[in-house]
């Protein structure tokens, strides 16, 4: 992860993150640790799919959105392993949000919790059962990580709870 790489290189995470995301710098020289002076090259993740990974398109019609990215049409896909892929006519970009506890997907200046979108796409029956059981709307329910010690955004580790159930689980 970028956090681990920044720590390994003895650099501030914020600075390191900005330099990589803006493509301003692709080669770094370690400033701390056992590797002072060593050069490291950033290699982007080009894997379109990981083993057992499934992609589904963000449900634009459900939310009534028209999606645009940098002035051109953009499609957003969500993976069952917590990755988000944006595609344009000129290419695509994959962002790994598996280890982001409160990951958010931004579409047309609106924010959506990644976990809830993943549950909606990959566990629709679980969502319908929870809504029926609680008499609550989907927007009122909260996404919870089943294994709170290892909060990974993978479909098998996510569930919908009422706010009351979520508070009880945290105690």
Secondary structure topology:
Blueprint: H1 2-9, H2 13-21, E1 27-29, E2 39-41, E3 55-57, H3 60-63, E4 68-69, E5 72-73, E6 75-79, E7 83-88, E8 91-96, E9 104-107, E10 110-113, H4 114-122, H5 124-134, E11 142-145, E12 158-161, H6 163-170
Antiparallel strand pairs: 1-2, 3-6, 4-5, 6-7, 7-8, 9-10, 11-12
Distance between the termini: 30 Å
Q: Supply the helix-strand structural class.
A: alpha+beta
The number of distinct helices, counting runs of at least 4 residues, comes to: 6
Q: SSE order, as H and E? A: HHEEEHEEEEEEEHHEEH
Give the percentage of residues in beta strands: 25-35%
Shape: globular
State the strand order across the main sheet. Answer: 3-6-7-8
Query: What's the main sheet like?
Result: 4 strands, antiparallel
Please mark out the parts with pLDDT under 50 across 5 or more consecutive residues, or reply none. Answer: 61-72
Mean pLDDT: 75
Radius of gyration: 19 Å
Explained architecture:
By secondary structure, the protein is α+β, with helices and mostly antiparallel strands. The protein has helices spanning 2-9, 13-21, 60-63, 114-122, 124-134, 163-170, and strands at residues 27-29, 39-41, 55-57, 68-69, 72-73, 75-79, 83-88, 91-96, 104-107, 110-113, 142-145, 158-161. The two termini are 30 Å apart.
